[in-house]
Structures are given as C-alpha cells and as structure tokens.
Design goal:
Elements: H1 16-27, E1 33-37, E2 48-50, E3 53-55, E4 61-67, H2 80-87, E5 117-118, E6 124-129, H3 136-142, H4 145-148, E7 158-167, E8 176-187, E9 190-198, E10 204-214
Antiparallel strand pairs: 1-4, 1-7, 2-3, 3-4, 5-6, 6-8, 7-10, 8-9, 9-10
Length: 216
C-alpha cells in the first residue's frame, strides 16, 4: 500500500483525507470507518496493515483504523451558485499554509481544486467538479479540507488528526457537486468539524466528522 506523491497535503506528506480513505479501504471495516492519523502519512513508501494499524517500513504507526459511531450531523445544503460565489472569497487564495495540497491547493492544476469560501454564518461552501478517477479515497479528500477551512486562518494552520466518513452514494465523473463545512466546537488546539457532500440534484452523498489540530 503506497500513497503516491501527487496526493500530498503538506509538502512531503499525504493529504490527510486521501490517506485516511486509502487506509480505511484497505482495512475494509463495515459501516462507518474512522481513521486516526498518528504521524504525517509518508509518500511513495510501502505501508502495511497490522491489526488495524498502518505501519511504515521503520515500524512506526502511521494511523489506526476502526469502526465508528454514525456521523450524526449534516451541514445544510446550499445551491451550486451560492457555493460558487462563496468560493470566490476563499482565504487560501491569499494565504494558504500548504498551497500545493491535492484537495484545496490553488497551486495545483491537477488537484481537486476544492476552494471552500466562508458564508455569513461561518460555515464554508465550495463547488466541486468530480474527476474522472473518482474513488473512495477521493471522496474522503473532498470531505477533508472543506471542514478544515472553518478554522484555518492566516498564520493559523491546522492539519487533520482524525476523520470518520459515511458514504451513501458515489457521484459520477463530471458531476457538479457542493461540499459544505461547519465548525462544531473548538478547545485549545483541537477543533471538531462536520462536512457534507451533495450531488447535482441536492441529495446528500456523504458526510464526515473530523478533528483538526493546530500546528506551529
């Protein structure tokens, strides 16, 4: 099991959502899966699964995978046009801690280019055109950064620490979707966020609950 270099988040490490989606898919947990990242996922390195733990070649635990309680909150939908308008004000266009992030990096023409802008109520919204190579890890990626940008700010970077995802239905390549994020709570260096993915018809496709951790 390898996280290819193109699926990076911070430079030199895997995008948290994509990596977690790969790990959950490999473990094959039934129902809702939750992944806790114990260290930045390495890129282009062979990783192994040992007792629901993702282990690197040096023996260090990269992540832990297990079942989770259902994700009990959805961020209410908004229209695609409203998401497009919100995206124009994406803070990451001005100050992005990881501008080459596969999920939300404006410096990546080959990434998902999900640019979540903030609405008046503090939630985030972004339009997303589903790529041809859509997969479960790609869906996990779409549910990652949009929640994080409810707390990420100028000079205040966060990274994903834990994420639980519930996928009801996969979108099709080319679908014009909307991703929504909301901050549930914040204490100290940790923030709990919810994210929801909606299809072109406004139907919910997937939802996530995640913990983000502030870094220096």
């Amino acid at each position: 099991m390898i996280i290819p270099a193109r699926f990076n988040g911070p430079p030199g490490s895997g995008n948290g959502g994509y990596s977690a989606g790969v790990f959950a898919s490999q473990v094959g947990a039934d129902g809702v899966s939750e992944v806790t990242l114990r260290r930045p996922p390495p890129l282009d390195v062979e990783l192994s699964i040992v007792d629901r733990r993702v282990v690197g070649p040096d023996g260090d635990v990269v992540a832990e995978v297990g079942p989770a309680e259902k994700v009990d909150a959805a961020v209410p939908p908004v229209g695609h046009a409203e998401a497009v308008e919100a995206s124009r004000g994406y803070d990451g266009f001005v100050d992005h801690p990881f501008s080459t992030c596969y999920g939300c990096g404006p410096a990546r023409d080959d990434g998902l280019r999900i640019f979540p802008g903030r609405l008046a109520d503090g939630t985030t919204a972004a339009p997303w055109t589903v790529p041809a190579d859509v997969s479960i890890p790609v869906i996990w990626t779409s549910l990652d950064c949009t929640g994080g940008w409810t707390v990420v700010g100028a000079g205040r970077p966060y990274v994903l620490g834990r994420i639980a995802v519930e996928v009801d239905r996969m979108p099709s390549p080319g679908d014009e979707c909307v991703v929504r994020g909301a901050l549930a709570s914040a204490e100290g260096r940790r923030a709990l966020v919810h994210t929801t993915l909606y299809g072109p018809d406004g139907a919910e496709l997937a939802r996530a609950r995640a913990t983000w951790v502030a870094i220096a």
